[in-house]
Design goal:
heterodimer, A: about 90 residues, mainly alpha, 4 helices, about 0% strand, flat, B: about 850 residues, Four Helix Bundle (Hemerythrin (Met), subunit A), two-stranded antiparallel sheet, 21 helices, 2 strands, about 65% helix, globular
Chain lengths: ~90, ~850
């Protein structure tokens, strides 16, 4: 099972990644290389989400079916968004 | 000839003419008055407090048939109007209301609830469960359904109900074109209906996956239960997208956001995407329960196991998956690009293939078996024929070029009625099939066949002429005189179809009192578990613990220790040793509160003025108070759900029912938020990504809120750790920290919003402000709900709760961490990028 220490490290990492997202903005990367900054910031969000789900929600230690359940919902939302956005002429 | 039934059947015979042992008379147990705290069936109070799945099933069936009458009368009004061209029976607005509400009532308030009446009654019996996983939530689903239907009825008395078609296309759905308060009420009623469906989906998914009898593996699951299982999975994700669409539309109508305004880039397209992402799975959501019932009936009345049964199930699973990737074939006439049209034409053709397999399976079953032409079989077979016609005519609409010609005509009307009413026909077959089980009485077979004859002739007279007069524009109260003959034939057919139901109601009502008594299995080859118990079944369903371990259904003397080590509750607190009560009035009270709360909301803001209407506001606040009181009492009362042990729980073995339910709900919430965020991304792409105006001035308030939420999540983790260490002070302190950090989040957000308001950035100012306030507002609402739960848990923890059982803290944590995760995406999307 997860130890105290792990929970604390996760919290510190989440805090740091949130700060890093704003740091990317403050460093002016959005002006100089928007889509690179966009990618970095979104990837950081996904990493944080996986950390919260994996450790704080204990998904890592649950039957894998629960992960698939959530992933199905996420996939449905992403499919809707991507296909709808692509359909714009 | 011989074969072993593996579909949860309990027959031991070795040929199609065998007598199933389900017919063996079991000692009939009388349903005692007051059992499990329930008043007798003859008491009116029983029906307000019951949480038993069979009672709730009956409530669903009766209520849905009332809505059938409502929707049917609206349809007959339309047919009278169309009897002659230029007829003035209905005003244009009245006709538009009739056509819109007829569609909404039949699709939402009749068809699915009719199916879920049977699902409620039959599924727990088929899987060997005492009840659904969360009985009070099941009652809540029903009462919310009824409340939503009543709210829809009220909408006619608020100027006018919704008159923009059942698809509610934008921009017709915004107040500029449908300004009546009743139109807003219709939207809110549908949203309430969706909440009911979502609660029901979570309940059925948990029940079917977690609570099957030992040995009842997924492969052995009866076909009807398979149909319901796939239906609720589709409902879970598809209705979440519809809920998002309706919440956004509700905001456009009440709060003045501008998502679907004609001036918003991609606004009307956004509605069609959201609606049809729900709408196409909805076709199968409506049809699959009927398909399952039809397959059961085919098996019973041919005395033959469904040919290719496992492939039939595989085809159903495939359709359920494919149903989410075909929605744009409803949009071939919109401005979506040609490559995406071509792609969706291909996926649409693809979804017809598994259906071919299912149709041939049923046809071949009739060839291999020996048909008994009873009323249920006639309806099931009639449903199959109608579905074949509906399916073939639908292929025309799936082809881009043909769709250009047919879209918006009576071809579409005829096609989808053949498909939808195929489902109705199958379910009417189900009504006759399960009538003896539910009532303990047989219906009159001759009258049943008369019903079928008039029904089938009437339906085809009504809808087949529409294929011939396909050039008639749909939804219009007038038509070119050249189509008069076909329209008149259709009207005659419509009245015949309506009259056929009078025969059914007469038959079923008189049979209820005077019908021949039915034993456990009145059908010779019925083989699923509901036929192994008396008709009607006793309150506890089974004389022992059902098991299929030996290959056939047996009832064992059962211990009732919980497999997961605890007693399941659905929010209430089970008191050990206390006799379990199955009565609760609070689902009804919550539904009453919801009804008045939403009624108040519908007119609280005066359309076009933006001022408060005190009358509506008072009604709304009173409804909110009743809702809150009902919810509080629901949580406080002692209530014990099914406790197990459960035999088969794949794929959620080891995950208790309540936890499974929470995860399933969160999966639905993922789609809800996904649709909100997707809507934002869609309109931003449509407007030009880099042309977008970021509403907050800087990202620091958002960053501070991120810190607050992350810390609050950490505090919930600490609460769980302290609960495991048996530290009451630690639990209270951690939950209090969570609460305070959540409050801090809301205060920070409030300050930010007030500042933006002062600068003139209102919800209605632009699409940028609309998306910002509504999406982060929905998240804020989730935070508020979380704080209410946290407040209640602090009170309970202070009194020593959660030290012996920390599951509630874990469940709250799942929700709170999810809210945290959502913010992790909203923050960069709305503050930085």
């Amino acid at each position: 099972m997860v130890t105290w220490k792990t929970y604390v490290w996760i919290y510190v990492a989440l805090f740091a990644f949130a700060t890093a997202q704003v740091a990317v903005e403050f460093a002016g990367l959005l002006e100089s290389a928007y889509w690179l900054a966009f990618g970095a910031i979104i990837v950081l969000s996904f990493v944080k989400a996986v950390m919260v789900a994996g450790w704080y929600q204990h998904l890592l230690y649950e039957p894998r079916s629960l992960t698939y359940l959530l992933a199905t919902g996420l996939l449905a939302a992403l499919a809707l968004t991507a296909a709808a956005a692509y359909s714009i002429t | 000839m011989s074969e072993k039934r593996t579909d949860g059947g309990h027959g031991h015979g070795d040929g199609p003419d065998r007598e199933p042992d389900g017919g063996a008379a079991l000692p009939a147990e009388s349903v005692e008055s007051g059992e499990h705290g329930l008043p007798p069936l003859s008491s009116v109070r029983r029906w307000f407090v019951t949480t038993n799945h069979k009672d709730v099933g009956v409530l669903y069936i009766v209520t849905s048939l009332l809505f059938l009458i409502f929707g049917g009368v609206l349809a007959l009004l339309m047919r009278l109007q169309l009897f002659t061209p230029g007829e003035a029976l209905l005003s244009p607005l009245a006709y538009n209301q009739a056509v819109s509400i007829h569609g909404l009532v039949m699709v939402f308030w009749f068809l699915s609830p009719f199916a879920f009446g049977f699902a409620n009654y039959v599924v727990p019996l088929q899987i060997g469960a005492d009840d659904l996983a969360f009985p009070r939530l099941n009652a809540l689903s029903y009462w919310l359904y009824l409340a939503s239907g009543l709210l829809l009825g009220v909408s006619f008395f608020q100027g006018a109900s919704f008159a923009g078609g059942w698809t509610m296309y934008a921009p017709l759905n915004v107040p500029a074109f449908t300004p009546q308060i009743g139109a807003t009420t219709t939207v809110l009623a549908l949203a309430l209906f969706v909440v009911s469906v979502t609660v029901g989906s979570v309940n059925f998914i948990t029940t079917i996956h977690r609570m099957r009898a030992a040995g009842l593996t997924m492969r052995r699951l009866p076909i009807f239960t398979w149909g319901i299982l796939l239906t609720v999975w589709m409902m879970l994700f598809a209705f979440a997208a519809l809920l998002a669409a309706l919440m956004i539309l509700g905001a456009d109508r009440v709060l003045g956001t501008t998502y679907f305004a004609a001036t918003t880039p991609g606004g009307s397209m956004l509605w069609t995407h959201l609606f049809w992402f729900f709408g196409h799975p909805e076709v199968y959501i409506v049809f699959f329960p009927a398909l399952g019932a039809m397959a059961e009936i085919f098996q019973t009345f041919t005395g033959r196991r469904l040919v290719g049964r496992k492939w039939f199930i595989a085809a159903m699973v495939l359709v359920a998956l494919q149903s989410f990737v075909v929605w744009m074939h409803h949009m071939f006439l919109t401005a979506i690009n040609l490559p995406v049209k071509t792609l969706f034409m291909a996926t649409t053709i693809g979804i017809s293939l598994p259906f071919d397999l299912m149709v041939f399976s049923m046809i071949y079953t009739t060839i291999k078996g020996k048909i008994r032409f009873t009323t249920p079989f006639l309806f099931a077979f009639g449903g199959l024929i109608l579905f074949i016609v509906g399916g073939i005519t639908g292929v025309f609409l799936g082809a881009v070029v043909l769709d250009y010609e047919f879209r918006g005509t009576y071809w579409v009307v005829a096609h989808f009625h053949y498909v939808m009413v195929a489902g109705v026909t199958g379910l009417v077959g189900g009504l006759y099939y399960w009538f003896p089980k539910i009532t303990g009485r047989m219906y009159d077979e001759l009258l049943g066949k008369v019903h079928f004859a008039i029904y089938f002739v009437g339906f085809n007279l009504l809808y087949f002429p529409m294929f011939l007069a396909w050039g008639t524009p749909r939804r219009v109260f007038d038509y070119p005189p050249v189509f008069t003959t076909w329209q008149q034939v259709a009207t005659v057919g419509g009245f015949l179809l309506g009259a056929s139901f009078l025969v059914m109601f007469y038959n079923l009502y008189t049979s209820l009192w005077r019908g021949e008594e039915a034993d456990a299995t009145p059908w010779r080859f019925a083989s699923t578990a509901e036929w192994a118990v008396p008709s009607p079944p006793p309150l506890e369903n089974f004389p022992g613990v059902p098991s299929y371990d030996s290959g056939a259904l047996e009832f064992r003397e059962g211990a009732t220790a919980h497999a997961d080590g605890g007693v399941e509750t659905d929010g209430g607190h089970a008191i050990e040793g206390e006799h379990a009560s199955h009565a609760s009035i609070w689902p009804f009270v919550i539904a009453v509160g919801s009804l008045f709360g939403l009624l108040g909301l519908s007119g609280a803001v005066v359309p076009g003025e933006g001022t408060l209407n005190p009358g509506y506001a008072v009604v709304g606040l009173a409804g909110l108070a009743v809702f809150g009181y009902g919810l509080l009492e629901l949580v406080r009362e002692s209530f014990e759900g099914p406790t197990g042990p459960f035999g088969e729980s794949w794929p959620f073995d080891g995950v208790p029912n309540t936890k499974t339910g929470v995860w399933v709900f969160l999966a639905s919430d993922v789609v809800l938020f996904g649709a909100f965020i997707g809507s934002y991304l869609f309109v931003r792409v449509a407007a030009g990504w880099n042309e977008w105006h970021i509403v907050p001035h800087n990202s620091l308030p958002g960053l501070i809120n991120t810190y607050l939420l992350l810390t609050s999540s950490f505090a919930v983790v600490l609460a769980l750790v302290f609960a495991k260490r048996n530290s009451r002070t630690g639990v209270v302190a951690s939950l209090a920290a969570t609460f305070l950090l959540g409050v801090g989040f809301l205060v920070n957000k409030g300050i930010e919003w007030i500042e933006l308001f002062h600068e003139g950035e209102w919800l209605s100012t632009s699409i940028e402000t609309s998306t910002f306030y509504l999406t982060t507002g929905l998240h804020g609402l989730h935070v508020v709900i979380g704080l209410v739960i946290a407040g209640w848990m602090i009170y309970r923890a202070w009194n020593g709760a959660y030290l012996d059982d920390d599951e509630p803290i874990e469940l709250f944590g799942l929700y709170w961490h999810f809210v945290d995760i959502v913010w992790l995406f909203l923050f960069p999307l709305f503050y930085i990028l």
